[in-house]
Amino acid sequence: MSDVEVASWILVIPVKRTAIAKSRLAAAYPQHRPELAHAFAVDTTAAALDSPLVHAVLVVTDDPVVAADVTAVGARVVPDLPGVGLNEALEHGAAIAAADYPGMGVAALSADLPALRPAELSAALAASTADRSFVIDQPGTGTTMLAAGPGVPLDPRFGVGSALAHQASGAHPIELTSIDSVRRDVDTAADLAHAVQLGVGPRTADVMSLVLGAATGSEGLAC
């Protein structure tokens, strides 16, 4: 699993309907929150597909607009048939990945990584040499990626305090110092500001241009 020239991973990315996603951004971006959530998901998916370690990306979503756009960049869409929560959606996607791509590892990846760099994702996947490994988010309490080797159940424990929950379940934290873009998920305006400093993908950059136009009153930019 350490050879970055071999596409040996299937990534599962869960995406909420953007009408309700990223609620903590609503105060700072009341007009553009749904567009930002949408852009995060598409940029994350596109960057993941550019990693040479990634064989395929399964996006678990019931949002038809997100489904169309991630399909356009090369992902496979899986309907969220459980429809009851994040971990259930991930288990559903992981089961399909294991059945359809035998012999490959399966990794759950957050959909809100707009600054994701393919090389840093590859480094994190290459470091996932334990049966189950995970990346701790920038604040240090959550999880942005959970990887399980071939034939190993993913057993996701996402939610509040997921870093401790994943470690308690036997997953090993990935201790790399150069994967900031993999750790930078976006829940708040401060998170987004940091992601912009790192350099966001094109869809998120486009929405941020709209935000700037709305703030300055520039013609043709405000929504």
Automatic annotation (TrEMBL):
It catalyses: phosphoenolpyruvate + GTP + H(+) = enolpyruvoyl-2-diphospho-5'-guanosine + diphosphate. Phosphoenolpyruvate binds at T143, G159, S162. It comes from the Bacteria. Transmembrane segments: none annotated. Pathway: Cofactor biosynthesis; coenzyme F420 biosynthesis. HAMAP family: CofC (MF_02114). This is Phosphoenolpyruvate guanylyltransferase. It comes from Kribbella qitaiheensis. The lineage of its organism: Bacteria, Bacillati, Actinomycetota, Actinomycetes, Propionibacteriales. The gene is cofC.
